[in-house]
Amino acid sequence: MPKNKGKGGKNRRRGKNENECEKRELVFKENGQEYAQVIKMLGNGRLEAMCFDGVKRLCHIRGKLRKKVWINISDIILVGLRDYQDNKADVILKYNADKARSLKAYGELPEHAKINETDTFGPGDDDEIQFDDIGDYDEDTDDI
């Protein structure tokens, strides 16, 4: 019997493994766009990002990037701002670590921006749980 070489199932995705990020040139922000860093992944193609203008925004990953470009916490992204909703934005582009470093070298990103560091907890988010009475129970186990 012949092998299945059709385009059904996952066969259409197994084709070429091209690396597009090497071909792509560095994209700077334009009017109505802003650089941001991902704070939290929310699911359903949405994330929470802290823009470098100081506003925390709910961002929607556009369809071209969904399931093709994986976005993680603390990634640097380019978002398109909405005219009618200031607290929401759309993800236009994800920068890899090399592109983000070159953006920082050009002075587009602020100096305090952490690139390629997965600091999921902010300052003061340490869970310091203290237990007072461990093992000081006077229960009678014979009654059980």
From TrEMBL:
Residues 1-15 have a biased composition (Basic residues). GO terms for molecular function: translation initiation factor activity; tRNA binding. InterPro entries: NA-bd_OB-fold, RNA-binding_domain_S1_IF1, TIF_eIF-1A, TIF_eIF-1A_CS. Residues 124-144 have a biased composition (Acidic residues). Gene3D superfamilies: Nucleic acid-binding proteins. The keyword Secreted does not apply. Residues 1-20, 115-144 are annotated as: Disordered. Keywords: Initiation factor, Protein biosynthesis, RNA-binding, tRNA-binding. The keyword Cell membrane does not apply. Residues 22-96 form the S1-like domain. It comes from the Eukaryota. Belongs to the eIF-1A family. Component of the 43S pre-initiation complex (43S PIC), which binds to the mRNA cap-proximal region, scans mRNA 5'-untranslated region, and locates the initiation codon. This protein enhances formation of the cap-proximal complex. Together with EIF1, facilitates scanning, start codon recognition, promotion of the assembly of 48S complex at the initiation codon (43S PIC becomes 48S PIC after the start codon is reached), and dissociation of aberrant complexes. PANTHER family: EIF-1A. Component of the 43S pre-initiation complex (43S PIC), which is composed of the 40S ribosomal subunit, EIF1, eIF1A (EIF1AX), eIF3 complex, EIF5 and eIF2-GTP-initiator tRNA complex (eIF2 ternary complex). Interacts with EIF5; this interaction contributes to the maintenance of EIF1 within the open 43S PIC. Interacts through its C-terminal domain (CTD) with the CTD of EIF5B; from the location of the start codon by the 43S complex until the formation of the 80S complex. This is Eukaryotic translation initiation factor 4C.
